[in-house]
């Protein structure tokens, strides 16, 4: 490296130890110069490397294949819209072909004019440095670009200990000799352009920017290929003293003086003419600083709602063994691995979901409407929105989680177990029944109340000592019902009876098979130890999330193929290689005909007619009007005491779920206020997600699974009008164990 001209504030006091070390180091370098006088330069370097080790094999692994920390960039579904980055160090490697030629010329002129003619150690530079040191009392070590690269790798390698990294920059004879040996070995194996590219990608340019790509963005908001001569000269001048020269954090005037020096040096090397240097020198220093966001809470305020999706992406990443054997290793891979992640987030669908959530509840309201949209057949998550800002910003007094929160209100986890989704869970009972061979035309008489065999512990629905659920609207729900109209009208006593028929344990297992996760300790314990007596499960008393619910219904939309929710389209390593971790994880969990039959019944709640025309009404019929007749299926749900209101609907192309609840107060009767709003919100998100796409219809189920043998109906005994206490009626229910 050339001896730099003195700059303002450059001379500093040095300790006695530093002066002694400099004297010793200069002595060693003097010895090298004397040796060089006796041997031609290349022969001398060859003997030096030969005497120490095999050139390439003697290099440590970090120099042969450097594991430099790079930021992971996260994009939306289009692959261009940046969501955020994750990094410990703001660095992004780029090939030399993507770096402007003037930048390559500027760094050589600034740091190592003889770069293309020496073999890793510039002996002329050593001699020149010795003369300067003797005259001016400096401690220049004549480091070439190759030697600087060696030092940068060794001091930043995450695999080395802190002591090893520190030793890479100590002032010692041993360290300098090692640096020379490694530089000479690299020059024997790598061509100059490869070394230059590696240097430009690892050098620190100040203001938190490591590598030329980060520096170009940080100072000028351009790519390295777009750098002008004046910009390149300024950046090249920063590496000698990045903290001092940075025009953002340091001395703007010093940066301009240093830029002028680089331009003059480029004239000396023949890279540019004097006229070009003068024109660049005359340019004003026009900065356009861009600081790369880092993490989910750093997403720009205009898209603060994207943080919930980002948070889910990070949780997904930390659970993937492909990125490391432990959570800590996966975290390090995310923050240092230099991945390019194209997510499944569709900004248009996300904006619609947020807009619809805010149409039901304002961001300042205690009540929330989290919404999730999932793609059937892949599990890819298109949107995760809620009427909150994903932010660590302070909230007004008395508003602990609004309008700002980082609690995962959409996907659950941490402090969020989820919300009761009410009658949407009747789908799992219907699937278990269909899988056991019961057709859609299976008839039961649905009374106002149904005495069951389950104990009434913890329930207000009691007949003596037994659990005794009731229909919400006896006038429209009581009577003979099939799966079609019982699902459409949401008849509680029918589905509790159907659950008794197949066994609640099978219903619970069906829900788990379709991805319902029990996050609360109570739910997990009931599912594991007491599922056979969990009769209320069919009415949606277990906590769930919009994301789980959307993925479960997407399984039916995909005719029985469950795909784990996936927040990415692709994940590529630093070299651009696509990794299989980004591929969907799907498996068949239902027979296709069973899924088709369930969809046929699920046309009833949304006001559409199924293939066999057996619907007699629906609790969410407004959805058909909103989607303008596009084939649709789904189910609404209201939990006990109207604490929540849920709606999940799907086409063959998308499944969307929303659950209105008060995350901080489960006794709040949210369902009353959100009755129609949740249905409309979910339906309008579906309209956005399918806009411009051709209509896709559902495949009808087989006749056997739809109609069975169509037996004659049998009437129940005469009722006294007091269904829950009528012993004759109860005995009749007990006898009627075989459905028709």
From TrEMBL:
Region described as Disordered: spans on this chain: 692-740
Molecular-function annotations in GO: penicillin binding; peptidoglycan glycosyltransferase activity; serine-type D-Ala-D-Ala carboxypeptidase activity
Domain Penicillin-binding protein transpeptidase residues, every copy: 372-664
Lineage: Bacteria, Bacillati, Actinomycetota, Actinomycetes, Micromonosporales
Reaction(s) catalysed (UniProt annotation): Preferential cleavage: (Ac)2-L-Lys-D-Ala-|-D-Ala. Also transpeptidation of peptidyl-alanyl moieties that are N-acyl substituents of D-alanine; [GlcNAc-(1->4)-Mur2Ac(oyl-L-Ala-gamma-D-Glu-L-Lys-D-Ala-D-Ala)](n)-di-trans,octa-cis-undecaprenyl diphosphate + beta-D-GlcNAc-(1->4)-Mur2Ac(oyl-L-Ala-gamma-D-Glu-L-Lys-D-Ala-D-Ala)-di-trans,octa-cis-undecaprenyl diphosphate = [GlcNAc-(1->4)-Mur2Ac(oyl-L-Ala-gamma-D-Glu-L-Lys-D-Ala-D-Ala)](n+1)-di-trans,octa-cis-undecaprenyl diphosphate + di-trans,octa-cis-undecaprenyl diphosphate + H(+)
Any one of the GO BP annotations: peptidoglycan biosynthetic process
Alphabetically ordered keywords of this record: Carboxypeptidase, Cell shape, Cell wall biogenesis/degradation, Glycosyltransferase, Hydrolase, Multifunctional enzyme, Peptidoglycan synthesis, Protease, Transferase
Protein name (record): Membrane peptidoglycan carboxypeptidase
InterPro entries xref list: Beta-lactam/transpept-like, Glyco_trans_51, Glycosyltr_51/Transpeptidase, Lysozyme-like_dom_sf, PBP_transglycosylase, PCN-bd_Tpept
Family indicated by similarity: In the C-terminal section; belongs to the transpeptidase family.
Gene3D superfamilies: Biosynthetic peptidoglycan transglycosylase-like (1.10.3810.10), DD-peptidase/beta-lactamase superfamily (3.40.710.10)
PANTHER family cross-referenced by the UniProt entry: BINDING PROTEIN TRANSPEPTIDASE, PUTATIVE-RELATED, PEPTIDOGLYCAN GLYCOSYLTRANSFERASE
Domain of life: Bacteria
Cell membrane among keywords: no
Biased composition (Basic and acidic residues): 727-740
GO annotations of cellular component type: outer membrane-bounded periplasmic space
A Pfam family matched in the record: Transpeptidase
Native source organism of the sequence: Micromonospora sagamiensis
The UniProt record lists the keyword Transcription regulation: no
Glycosyl transferase family domain location: 82-266
């Amino acid at each position: 490296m050339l001896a730099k001209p003195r700059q303002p504030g450059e001379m500093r006091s040095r300790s006695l130890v530093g002066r002694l070390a400099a004297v010793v180091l200069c002595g060693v370098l003097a010895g090298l110069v004397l040796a060089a006088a006796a041997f031609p330069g290349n022969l001398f370097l060859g003997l030096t490397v030969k005497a120490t080790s095999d050139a390439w094999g003697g290099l440590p692994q970090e120099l042969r294949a450097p594991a430099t920390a790079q930021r992971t960039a996260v994009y939306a579904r289009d692959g261009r819209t940046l969501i955020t980055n994750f990094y410990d160090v703001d660095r992004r490697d780029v090939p030399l072909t993507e770096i402007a030629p003037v930048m390559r010329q500027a760094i050589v002129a600034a740091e190592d004019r003889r770069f293309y003619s020496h073999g890793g150690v510039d002996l002329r530079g050593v001699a020149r440095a010795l003369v300067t040191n003797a005259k001016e009392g400096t401690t220049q070590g004549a480091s070439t670009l190759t030697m600087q690269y060696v030092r940068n790798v060794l001091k930043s390698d995450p695999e080395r200990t802190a002591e090893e990294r520190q030793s890479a920059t100590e002032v010692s004879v041993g360290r300098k000799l090692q640096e020379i040996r490694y530089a000479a070995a690299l020059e024997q194996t790598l061509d100059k352009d490869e070394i230059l590219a590696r240097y430009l990608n690892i050098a620190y340019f100040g203001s938190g920017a490591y590598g030329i790509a980060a520096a170009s963005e940080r100072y000028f908001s351009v790519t390295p290929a777009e750098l002008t001569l004046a910009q390149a000269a300024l950046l090249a001048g920063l590496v000698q003293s990045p903290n001092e020269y940075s025009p953002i954090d340091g001395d703007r005037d010093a940066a301009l003086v240093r830029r002028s020096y680089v331009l003059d040096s480029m004239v000396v090397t023949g890279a540019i003419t004097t006229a070009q240097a003068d024109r660049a020198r005359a340019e004003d220093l026009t900065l356009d600083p861009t600081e790369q966001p880092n993490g989910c809470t750093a997403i720009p305020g205009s898209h603060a709602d994207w943080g919930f999706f980002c948070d889910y992406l990070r949780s997904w990443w930390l659970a993937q063994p492909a990125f490391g054997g432990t959570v800590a290793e996966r975290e390090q891979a995310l923050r240092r691995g230099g991945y390019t992640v194209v997510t499944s987030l569709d900004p248009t669908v996300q904006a619609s979901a947020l807009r619809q959530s805010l149409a039901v509840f304002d961001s300042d309201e205690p009540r929330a409407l989290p919404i999730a949209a999932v793609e059937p057949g892949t599990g890819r998550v298109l949107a995760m929105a809620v009427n909150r800002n994903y932010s660590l910003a302070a909230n007004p007094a008395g508003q602990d989680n609004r309008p700002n929160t980082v609690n995962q209100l959409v996907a659950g986890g941490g402090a969020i177990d989820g919300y009761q989704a009410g009658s949407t869970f009747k789908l799992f009972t219907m699937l278990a029944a269909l899988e056991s061979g019961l057709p859609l035309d299976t008839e039961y008489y649905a009374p106002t109340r149904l005495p069951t065999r389950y104990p009434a512990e913890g329930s207000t629905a009691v007949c003596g000592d037994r659990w005794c659920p009731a229909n919400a609207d006896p006038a429209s729900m009581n009577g003979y019902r099939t799966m079609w109209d019982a699902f459409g009208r949401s008849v509680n006593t029918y589905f509790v009876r159907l659950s008794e028929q197949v066994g609640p344990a099978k219903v619970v297992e069906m829900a788990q098979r379709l991805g319902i996760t029990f996050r609360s300790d109570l739910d997990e314990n009931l599912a594991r130890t007491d599922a056979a007596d969990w009769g209320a499960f069919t009415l949606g008393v277990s906590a769930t999330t919009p994301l789980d619910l959307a993925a479960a219904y997407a399984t039916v939309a995909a005719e029985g193929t469950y795909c784990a929710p996936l927040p990415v389209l692709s994940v590529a390593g630093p070299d651009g290689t696509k990794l299989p971790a980004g591929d969907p994880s799907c498996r068949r969990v239902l027979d296709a005909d069973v899924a088709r039959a369930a969809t046929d019944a699920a046309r009833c709640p949304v006001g559409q007619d199924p293939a066999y025309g057996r619907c007699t009404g629906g609790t969410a019929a407004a959805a058909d009007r909103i989607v303008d007749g596009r084939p649709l299926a789904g189910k609404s749900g209201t939990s006990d005491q109207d604490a929540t209101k849920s709606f999940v609907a799907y086409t063959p192309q998308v499944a969307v779920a929303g659950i209105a609840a008060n995350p901080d107060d489960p006794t709040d009767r949210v369902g009353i206020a959100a009755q129609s709003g949740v249905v409309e919100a979910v339906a309008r998100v579906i309209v956005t997600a399918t806009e411009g796409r051709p209509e896709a219809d559902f495949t009808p189920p087989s006749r056997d699974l739809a109609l069975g043998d169509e037996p004659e109906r049998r009437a129940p005994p005469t009722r006294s009008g007091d269904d829950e206490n009528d012993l004759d009626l109860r005995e009749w229910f007990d006898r009627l164990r075989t459905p028709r």
